[in-house]
Amino acid sequence: MTSFSQGLHHITAICGDPAENRRFFVDVLGLRLVKKTVNFDDPGTYHLYYGDELGSPGSALTFFAFAGAPPGQPGLGAAIEIAFAVPADALDFWQARLADNGVETRREHRFDEQALCFEGPHGNRLALIGCDWAARMPAWPGAPVAGEYAIRGFHGATLALAELEPSAAVLEQVLGFTRVAQQGNRVRLRAQTGEGLGAVVDLYVDPTLASAREGVGSIHHVAFRARDSDHQLALRECLASQGLHATPQIDRQYFQSVYFREPGGVLFEIATDGPGFTVDESAAQLGTSLKLPPQYEPRRALIEKALTEF
Ligand code: ZN
User: How many angstroms separate the alpha carbon of residue 175 from the centre of ligand 1?
Assistant: First the structure.
């Protein structure tokens, strides 16, 4: 029998200006820029990775920078919110810090936790969730935010769906999540790992919502963890047995990827934990220079010329 996914691996969203993106996610939210590379399918644009000190699975938020693209619209068939875990008593700090940076916030009581909801600079919907377990996890020592408040990684993601059951079935039967609670339209599923980074997927079910439109501010896909290549292939086989078509394994330099669309229309990925972001630069150097995969190195001069340095 296949063992299940350990939860979220990374989440990829779409942003506009990469400099503005880095300013917000590093200077305000205190994440580390762990990789500056290009979109492997569109090497004239940046792909930026943020996370904890090493961009560990469960902490990696990535952005395709499509400056000048039209704004997206959150809605059915897409992830509509990215939630980060912070210590339970850190929300007052964050509310003040975000206000100082001109960001409006809204408090929500979700299940047994408090959420601070806001929009990122490109319209991405974000939330900080105060969690008891977050304080027990180390924070990145170099972070511009003190460890007692710092983001540890993902709490989870929210997907907007017209129907609950088909999407829940894939999360349960292939990825090993369990339905744990419901609050209004929001149904919470939890990874087999239970508590900790990236263990939550909320399904927000409302068939009256409009369909999502992809663009700046939207979330492109949600990736789940596989331990290694064999585990990934086993999960892929499990998808096939459910009648879901997945891509072959694709080398993404920092992990291997398999993509599929879940029945509600959200693009999912299964990504391997390794080799990780230290495969092409040291832990100390992460994110400090433009890294290209081997197939693009011969075109480096041309690619660098097409990108705006920031
Ligand atoms: Zn991905």
Answer: 16
How far, in Å, is the centroid of ligand 1 from the Cα of 60? 10
Distance 89 CA to ligand 1 centre (A): 32
* Domain presence at residue 255: yes
- Average pLDDT score over the chain: 97
Q: Which domain holds residue 237?
A: 8-306
**Do 53 and 147 touch, CB atoms closer than 8 A?**
no
Q: Residue 99 C-alpha to ligand 1 middle, in angstroms? A: 31
Which of 127, 99, 103 has the alpha carbon at shortest distance from 113? 127
Cα of 257 to ligand 1 centre, how many Å?
Answer: 7
Instruction: Look at residue 2 in the predicted model and tell me its pLDDT.
Output: 66
| Residue 1 reports pLDDT greater than 60 | no
CB within 5 A of ion ligand 1: which residues?
A: 12, 223, 269
The answer as to whether 50 is a domain residue is yes
Q: How far is the CA of 144 from the centre of ligand 1 (A)?
A: 26
Q: What is the pLDDT of residue 13?
A: 98
As given in the structure block, the two tokens for residue 49 are 């990775």
Task: Report how many domains make up the chain.
Answer: 1
Distance 11 CA to ligand 1 centre (A): 7
Rg of the chain taking only CA atoms, in angstroms: 18
User: What digits encode the pLDDT tens for the residues 127-170?
Assistant: 999 999 999 999 988 889 999 999 999 999 999 999 999 999 99
| 115 strand-pairing partners | 108, 129
- Could you tell me if 46 and 18 are in contact, meaning their C-beta atoms sit under 8 angstroms apart? yes
CATH, residue 167: 3.10.180.10
Would you give the distance in Å from CA 289 to the centre of its chain?
22
pLDDT digits (tens, 9 = 90+) for 247-305: 999 999 999 999 999 999 999 999 999 999 999 999 999 999 999 999 999 999 999 99
Mean pLDDT of 1-30: 94
- Could you tell me the pTM of the whole model? 0.98
